Structure formats: C-alpha cells, structure tokens
Automatic annotation (TrEMBL):
<dbReference type="InterPro" id="IPR023393">
    <property type="entry name" value="START-like_dom_sf"/>
</dbReference>
<dbReference type="InterPro" id="IPR021578">
    <property type="entry name" value="STK_08120-like"/>
</dbReference>
<protein>
    <submittedName>
        <fullName>SRPBCC family protein</fullName>
    </submittedName>
</protein>
<dbReference type="Pfam" id="PF11485">
    <property type="entry name" value="STK_08120-like"/>
</dbReference>
Length: 130
C-alpha cells in the first residue's frame, strides 16, 4: 500500500527542515491533536499512539542530507516506511511531501488506509510548526 501526502510549501530552508526532522523529538510538534502518547526512546527512535489506534514505534532508517529522511516501523509485524522528501524551491522555501509504504493484507489495508492517509496529511500540514 502506497500513500502520499499533498505537497506542502514551508517557509524554511531544506537544510533547516532536514535538521529538525533528524531530531526525532521534533516529530511531537507534527503530531495530530488526538495524540495519546509520544515518547522518545533514543536519538533514532520514538513511539507514539493516537486515540483508538495501536502504538507505533518508528526508527530512523536512512537519510540524505537536506532532501530525504526515511523512518521505518521498529516491529516486523507491520512493516512500513514513512519517507519525507524535501525539495528546496528557493533559499527559504521548501516543498515537503510524505510517502507511506507498507505491506499489508487487503483487509488490513482497507481498514488503515483512511486513518493513515489523514495522519500523513496532518504531519505534512504541520511542517510549518518546526
């Protein structure tokens, strides 16, 4: 299952956004209002829970300075990645798009497609808070 957030333009440089997203504690600022839990495990990992959803632990998997950050599920039960793509348009203007990719059975995919789509849309729209 592949989902993409709308592209969002943020009035910040790609370098600044990359540095902010490289620090996992800053993801708390991006979370939706219905967050029930947010806990930093270490410098590469955090766990969060939204009301009515299971808690998810994300780990930094891969990064390309100023252009891409990939987070992945710490558990192999629900394998997925969340990729942040940063494209600098001008010196202090960056386009951000989030991509969610996961391997789920059709029933699970049908159940989580809506909430996950809304979740990554919220994360992207909150990028200006960094």
């Amino acid at each position: 299952m592949n989902l993409e957030s709308p592209k969002v333009t943020v009035e910040k440089s790609a370098q600044y956004l990359f540095e902010q997203l490289s620090d996992v504690k800053n993801f708390e600022k991006l979370m939706p209002e219905n967050i029930a839990k947010f806990e930093v495990i270490d410098e590469n990992c955090f766990e969060f829970g939204l009301k009515g959803m299971p808690e998810i632990k994300l780990v930094k998997k891969e990064f390309t300075p100023n252009s891409k950050i990939v987070l992945g599920a710490a558990s192999s039960k629900l394998p997925f990645t969340l990729t942040g793509n940063l494209t600098e348009i001008e010196e202090n203007k960056t386009e951000v798009q989030l991509q969610f990719e996961g391997e789920f059975n059709p029933m699970m995919a049908m159940m989580i497609k809506g909430p996950i789509g809304k979740f990554i849309e919220t994360l992207a729209s909150n990028m200006g808070k960094l």
